Amino acid sequence: MTVREDREKLYKEREKRISDAVSLKKPDRVPIGLLVHYYANRMMGISNKDAITDYSLCLKAFRDLTLKLKLDLAPTPYPLLPAKPCALLGLTQYRLPGYGLDDNASHQYVEKEYMLEEEYDEFLANPEGFAVRKIWPRIATAFEPLAGLPPIYMMLEARGLVMGGGTLAGMPVYSDLLKTLLEFRKEASSYNAAVSQYTTEMAELGFPLLCSAGARTPFDFLSDFLRGIKGSSTDMYRVPEKLLKAIDILTPACYQTGLNIAKRSGNPRVLVTLHRGAGGFMSDGQFSKFYWPGLKKVLLALVDAGLTPMVFLEGDYTPRLEYLAELPRGKVVGHFEHVDLRKAKKIIGDMICFWGNVSAQALIVGKPEQVRDEVRNLIDTFGDNGGLIIDGSVGIPDEAKPENLEAMMDAVFKYGVY
Amino acid sequence: MNEKLVNLMADLKEKETIALVRELIDGGADPGGILDDARSAMELVGKRFEKCEYFIPDLMMAGEILKGISEIIRPLLTKGDASTKKGKVLIGTVAGDIHDIGKDIVTFMLDVSGFDVLDLGIDVPPEVFVEKAREFQPRVVGLSGFLTLAFDSMKKTVDALEQAGLRDNVKIMIGGGQIDDEVRKYVHADAYGKDAVAGVQLCREWIGG
């Protein structure tokens, strides 16, 4: 067998290993699927700042990590925000390592009420216009001129388009913006090209990508990016109907792009990240009214399109297990951070594939034996029907000790063969 | 005590609560008394949170109602708040981390439990913790962090307090999404709290009240 044929064979084996686990069939071995942020570049001695500035450095680190640990799936690099396109837009919504944060910090989201309570009606009447004229200028300085953009529908006929469009494009603020956008396009394409080159290279080396695309949860989308935790909380009391309407409007936006990208890529796995629906965050009543219906729509839309939602459940999901059990069998993967393992096995163990959850603490400050024990316990608990993928509880923490990560891998190779 | 006011507020009926406060003020009620009732209502809210009847959205709403009442009452108060606090707690999210939800809940719960809390905000460098610990002289220092990078920031903060000769004067508690006893040992903190209720319990044990 040539090297190439050998790699193709390995690619198929790995893809099958993961798809078997997803559909609750026993694969040859428990698969490993790691969510990686800055761990890869740190291992290679590359600062977080350099990793988000020089994409080839960062992606090489992802490649080297995949090969070194003999992972089943190449980690998806998109949790990292590319610094140059962000800088060109004057993005203020995130703080990035080396740009407002320490060179080795991880990027952090700046939460604010980007939309005020009194702006709901405007948003509901015209979400597109609201995004362009209100939100973009608030999250990126380059877009500030858009706050004064006149109504575009005045240009719905040819003459208005030519005259109005010409006048607009000729105004200094907008011609400057167009120049910035051209620069932005160049930087954004060079990032996209680097990622697609990484994907191709990893496939040629025999490694499928963990996920091809991402989708969002409607409540989190609204709470994170528009109303903030406080705003979305008080909305439940003050303007619940508007909150629900906005969630409804945002729902297709939460999955459509990810669905299209995943379909095009041929990789069915779509990462869906959740945070504010966790137990302890909101009551069961609030979850069932404001959180779950939108989330379920997103997950089912992906499943109906033949895709596999890989749901990252941040926080403690023990109180929400019954909801997850409503999902179609063998079609969804649940990445758990904290959960009562026995209850999880009992309630969702025969419905959805369990992904996780070697504790971040063990990986960072624990000893290899601890990590090994945790892996073994996961395999003992969930391995019987094949519905298990191993990862750290929050993915691989940036500060994980290499020997602990190796212990995690070794334990899977040792105890995880079916 | 005006039980109707306390219950309306603890049940998070914003409009009714504010309307009643205005009605009481117009009727010549003592603004200090209304503030005491608001405090009692917040204690009830805190208890409901402890019992898992209330969650973050409810605490946020309670905070908003309290703000609304304070806006009406504050201009009418002639002298400062004379109530005595149980003891001082200095709190903040450690360097490199800008998450505030968990810290804010602990601050809220300590405040409604009668502690004098100084909240330093987010991304607080060790030297600021040291400086404020000197000025404020807390009995307890609470270090919050959601990201795993907070482990090292917490450790550095504890070390800085040690080097400044302040470590023996304070008890240090840590908390956040990834914190457990292993992390506590690594950080050299005195204790960790798995949630806000546990944080309040620690302060009660250390300070009393």
Can you tell me the CATH superfamily of the largest domain in chain B?
A: Cobalamin-binding domain
CATH topology (fold) name of the largest domain in chain A: TIM Barrel
Q: Walk across the major sheet of chain A and give the strand order.
A: 4-5-6-7-8-9
What's the tally of helices of chain A?
Answer: 17
Mean pLDDT of chain B equals: 90
**Can you identify the CATH class of the largest domain in chain A?**
Alpha Beta
Gross CATH architecture of the largest domain in chain B? 3-Layer(aba) Sandwich
CATH topology descriptor of the largest domain in chain B: Rossmann fold
The number of strands of chain A is 9
Overall SS class of chain A: alpha/beta
CATH class categorisation of the largest domain in chain B: Alpha Beta
Structural write-up:
The complex is a heterodimer of chains A (418) and B (209). Chain A is of the alpha/beta class. Chain A has two domains: 1-35 and 210-418, TIM Barrel (Alpha-Beta Barrel); 47-68 and 81-208, no CATH class. Helix content of chain A is 56%, strand content 10%. A six-stranded parallel beta sheet of chain A has the order 4-5-6-7-8-9. In chain A, strands 2-1-3 form a three-stranded mixed beta sheet. The longest helix of chain A has 33 residues, at 172-204. The model of chain A has no long low-confidence stretch (mean pLDDT 95). Chain B is α/β, with parallel strands linked by helices. Chain B has a five-stranded parallel beta sheet, sandwiched between helices. In chain B, α1 crosses α3 and α5 packs across α9 (196-207). Chain B starts with a helix and ends with a helix. The A-B interface holds A 95, 101-102, 105-106, 108, 110, 229-230, 232-234, 236-238, 280-283, 286, 315, 337, 359-362, 364-366, 393-394, 397-399 and B 12, 14, 53-61, 63-64, 96-99, 101, 147-149, 151-152, 177-180, 182-183, 185-186, 195.
